[in-house]
Structures are given as C-alpha cells and as structure tokens.
Predict the structure.
Amino acid sequence: MSGRIRRTFELLLCVTAVVGILTGCVSTNSSTTDSSKDMSKTMSNGKIAVPDVSRDTLTLPAASDTKVKDEAIKTPDSSKDKTSEEKDEVIGGSLVNPSKYIPDPGARIKIVLDAGHGGVHSGASSDGINEQDINLRVALYCRNYLVTHYSDVAVYLTRNNDRELDPTLRVDLEERANIAERANADSLISIHFNASEDHDQSGAVVYVSKSDNVHEESALLGEEILKKLEDLGIGNNGIKTRDSNDLMDSNGNPYDYYAINRHCAKRDIPGIIVEHAFMDNADDRCFIDSEEDLIAIAEADALGIAAHYELTLY
Ligand SMILES: [Zn+2]
C-alpha cells in the first residue's frame, strides 16, 4: 500500500438527501446471500490493450458497423494524432486513448457498463481519490479488456468522461437504465466504490434487485464478479438486496432502494451495483491506489462477466 491513510478523510459519502434514488456506496444492513469460495481462477497479469476509440459509445450503432468494430479490435495499438474530441476522453492524462470501438448490436451478449456518478453528481471522496473518477477508469479498462479479448460481446458505456447524464439525479439514474434498454442489454453493471462513516468497513458487495424477473440472474452475475475480486484479495461481502424506505407497491411492499436496481428490473434487465472496495479503509485502499490496481479490478470485473456469459476468447 502506498501512502498512509490519514484520519482527516474528506469523506463525502455518495448519499443524497433524496431517499430511494441512490445508486449505492453506503454500507447498510441488508439481506445477504453468501457467494461461493471458488478460487480456481487466477488473474492474468497482461496489460489491458487500449483500443482506438473515437466514437461516443452512447450512440447505438447500426448492424453495418460490425466491420468497423472488427477492424478496431485487430489494431488496438494503432497510434495517431488525437483529435480534440479524443482528448476529451483522456482521463488523468494517461489512461484512456479511446478507440474507434463501436459496439455491435448483433453481438450474442450486450453489456452496459455504468460508471457511477459523474459531472455534478459527485460520488464518495477520500484522501485524494474521487469515486466518479475511478469508477470511470474501471469502466473504461473493463470495456477495453472485454472487447479486446472476447468475440461475442458488445459493451456500451453510460458515460465515457466526467459528466452527468442529467442535472437531476433522479433523471440521471433512470437514464442509465434507459441506455441499457435501448442497447437491448443482457445486463447493466454499475461500477462504484464504497465509503463508511467510521472508515472501518472493507470488502466488495453487489446490490441486486429483489424482483423475481431479474433477481436470480443478477445474483449469479454478481457472484462471478465477486469471485474474481476475491482472487485479488478483496473481501467478499456477498450479494445483497436493499428495500426502499418509502417507495411501496400497491400491496405495501417496498421497492428496491437503489434506483439502478429498480429501473433496470422494471425493464426486465438485471442491473447490478458492484461496490468494489471501501475507498476510505486502510485495508482496502491498497487495492485502489495505483493505476495497476484499477486495471486489475477492471480485469476482475471483465473475467467475472466473461465467466457468467461464457464469452468466447478471440
Ligand atoms: Zn457510488
């Protein structure tokens, strides 16, 4: 671990005052389903190839774009002058040289990676790390890993730079589910990092909807991702659901607390929230305090997704 965690955390929990529209990031008392302890796979240590992307991935392409996608994947290291548009997508000056990757809507599996928060909607912040930034880095690394390793997956992003989808949080969150619906996505994976008031909690957790139409599929996907994070040494706190405090159906049963879970379930899409680690905890901090750490986390996510969907390697 590099850098000592100071006790002067500027902790800004990714909580808003609006109950029931949160995306995650706060540890809660929730029902838990233990994940299995399968440790059979080890992480590969290879660098994630950075494809050459210049297109806004929010735009859903026509099927005829498939050829462009294939060409981009075969030339992930092509270097060329960056346009101003591409520079906008470079994060932290080094991470992402976004490629010309264009998701193929005809792919067998379609995934939406949702980098939590962004723009005016700040996430947690702790000791110099801002959640919305590392969420985006992990989402981009994960996308890049998936599309350069597997032939039968299309990956869409809800955002590819530091921006909100809508100034109003409620609308912003629902729009993330709308993107998944427009992409006809098999699932949406919302990428987050956690924080706790006393800085004493650690480990990864995945929040899923309790709705019958998506719960099982969500939990299975989440468990695969948690296994891969566990391979990195991150604690596995399992699959959880969380009830809304005030949003009830006509029978008085609470809806899902988290908007991503709720809105995706309403669209028959498994929408899971992966809280990868606690940013403000000394034990977890060592998993996120370097670029290599974030790449490893992104790769774990990608391997979990690949395992669940049995993606085909190139
Ligand atoms: Zn968050």
Remarks:
- Residues 14, 23-25, 116-117, 123, 131, 192 surround zinc ion (CB under 6 Å).
